[in-house]
Design a protein that fits this description.
The protein is mainly β. About 0% of the residues lie in helices and about 65% in strands.
């Protein structure tokens, strides 16, 4: 007698049905008995015997595997007996692992009131066949009870509650809100989630604007300029800023300030006409006068008249512009574009191009710049890098930029670097900068830092942005202590030098000093003190360049706020006489400042 399994079976899923078919070859003897041995709790739903011929027959079994059958290897054995022989067939099958959690809300609210406490009760049930350690979490609510050691056996349930304070809406009287609950399992990436939606109503009737009115300000400027000849003028100022729809998806702002009264770039005297449209997370358009910030090397804030268009796609962003700089006679029409590739959630790679007409040796030439930029930002790491190059008069040159920050437990490391060559005609020319910092946070109140700063920046001077070209170095060690929520103190020792390398040569000195900064901030009184003592060597005046002078600097700024709309403050510098950086003894009077709010 011989038994052969016709339906190979290696794995079964709990809570399902399966069928086994055996072919039995028995010769002339009659089978007296058959028995199918199954794991505990498994059931035979049906069985039948089919005779094929005088010697062969088939045995058919339909089995049910219990829903919460533990995973692992199980044995199925078929035994047959005739008058002369007993034979058996043993089958080993694997019960698969099932990991499933159901979250059932017991008390779903229909409406809740703002500022009320909302308690939600959930039934958490283990629908799998493994004993699970669960970790509940919620982004909107607080979990009630001990959630550090919750273990559920198969088919076991647990009642869990969350508590949430419903926030107050500033403008809406009725709105929709949600509460979430997530259940995490050990060694299982995707949490099981339940999201509850309900309506919230306000306890007070809030003011709304059913007409979607756009706030607009209208004013008049009066300018007076006194020189060899007095000049007076009047300018109209119209500003608007608001949304075009109730969902606050489309936003516009505009500014009309003019006409131009003086042909000089005094703040407030030149005309400004601009319009800006923004579609949330999608489109941004600027038209008129604005400060162009394209990237760190090509254009970092040139003020001019033109347009800029930005568009965001799912994995792509574009930025294109055309601008004619104002108050900067050595640069004319400027245009460019960039394409950014979003490489995952944290990184963006951009391809940048810019062309401009630029005065080189008193002759305007077309300058074309191209480069790459890369940004990567997480909670602990920030990286912003660029490289750009241009070819002018058969001379190639380039610029590089890198800004890096990294938080490592109690340490923070930061670095900022800029380099541009003599024949690079981006926003900086013939410049370099190196700023480095490492900080250690000893505890919540005390931290220390070591800083090294070297700067030789030569921006293409814009009268509204830069008016000096400093060479600057400052190396210092600082300790910061947060006394309490209202008081903060910083002590540092500095070695520094500063030189203006532009044609006007405003300063040139070296100094080393100890600095103390103290700040006190309360509701009705504020106080700021900056004290500094050191030695200064003035290099601007030839007679002082070989001597070092003691420098005392003391600045005290108190402020009293007796009521919310009134502040009275003072500015005292110095409290004692001091030798300044130009080698001149000075005493400054006390200034009293009063302001209303």
């Amino acid at each position: 007698m011989k038994i052969n399994l016709l339906t190979p079976l290696t794995k079964v899923v709990p809570g399902t049905y399966t069928t086994l078919m055996y072919q039995v070859t028995n010769g002339s003897s009659k089978i007296e008995s058959d028995k199918l041995d199954l794991p505990s709790n498994w059931k035979i739903l049906s069985q039948s015997k089919i005779s094929i011929d005088a010697t062969d027959s088939k045995y058919l079994y339909t089995l049910y595997i219990p829903k919460y059958e533990p995973s692992g290897s199980k044995i199925i054995k078929l035994s047959l007996k005739n008058a002369t022989d007993t034979v058996s067939n043993t089958l080993s099958v694997e019960v698969e692992k099932i990991r499933a959690i159901t979250i059932t809300l017991i008390n779903k609210p229909i409406m809740v009131k703002e500022a009320d406490s909302l308690r939600l009760d959930y039934l958490i049930q283990n629908m799998g066949n493994l004993t699970e350690k669960i970790t509940p979490a919620s982004g909107s609510s607080k979990i009630i009870g001990n959630i550090d050691s919750l273990v559920l056996s198969p088919n076991q349930s647990y009642k869990l509650s969350t508590l949430q304070i419903i926030p107050i809406h500033k403008t809406e009287n009725l709105w929709n809100s949600t509460s979430d609950l997530k259940i995490y399992l050990k060694d299982y990436v995707t949490p099981f989630t339940d999201l509850v939606s309900y309506q919230v109503y306000s306890g007070t009737i809030k003011k709304t604007d059913p007409y979607l009115r756009l706030p607009i300000e209208v004013g008049v400027w009066y300018n007076s300029f006194v020189a060899n000849k007095n000049s007076n003028s009047v300018q109209l100022d119209v500003k608007g800023n608001g949304y075009l729809d109730f969902n606050q998806k489309h936003h516009i702002s505009f500014n009309l300030h003019g006409p131009n009264s003086f042909n000089i770039p005094n703040i407030g005297s030149y005309d400004i006409y601009n319009f800006e449209y923004t579609k949330r997370n999608d489109i941004k358009l600027k038209v008129g006068d604005f400060a162009l910030r394209f990237n760190n090397l090509m254009e970092l804030g040139r003020f001019g008249r033109g347009f800029q268009f930005e568009k965001e796609f799912k994995k792509l962003s574009i930025n294109t512009f055309y601008i004619s700089p104002r108050f900067f006679p050595t640069q004319r029409e400027t245009y460019g574009a960039s394409v950014g590739l979003h490489m995952g959630k944290y990184a963006t790679l951009s391809f940048n191009y810019m062309g401009k007409s630029f005065s080189i040796n008193n002759q305007f030439r077309n300058v074309n710049l191209a480069g790459l930029s890369f940004k990567y930002q997480t909670n602990d790491i920030n990286l912003d890098s660029e490289i750009s190059g241009n070819l002018v008069n058969q001379k190639a040159d380039f610029g590089a930029f890198n800004n890096f920050g990294w938080k490592i437990k109690k340490f923070y490391v930061g670095s900022n670097f800029i380099y541009t060559g003599k024949n690079f005609y981006g926003f900086f020319n013939n410049s370099w900068l190196s700023i480095n910092n490492i900080s250690y946070y000893i505890n919540d109140k005390l931290s220390v830092s070591l800083n090294s700063n070297y700067t030789r920046i030569n921006p293409n001077l814009d009268l509204l942005v830069y008016n000096s070209s400093p060479f600057y170095s400052n190396n210092f060690f600082a300790a910061n202590y947060q006394i309490n929520r209202k008081q903060h103190i910083t002590v540092s020792y500095n070695l520094s030098s500063k030189e203006d390398r532009s044609s006007q040569k405003l300063f040139n000195y070296k100094e080393n000093f100890t600095r103390l900064q103290y700040d006190f901030n309360s509701k009705y009184f504020k106080l700021s003190y900056n004290g500094q003592y050191g030695l200064t060597q003035n290099l601007l005046v030839q007679s002082d360049s070989l001597s070092k002078r003691a420098t005392f600097l003391n600045v005290l700024q108190p402020q009293i706020i007796p009521v919310r709309w009134l502040a009275i403050g003072g500015y005292l510098e110095p409290l004692i006489s001091w030798e300044d950086r130009l080698g001149i003894s000075a005493k400054s009077p006390m200034l009293t400042i009063t302001s209303g709010r």
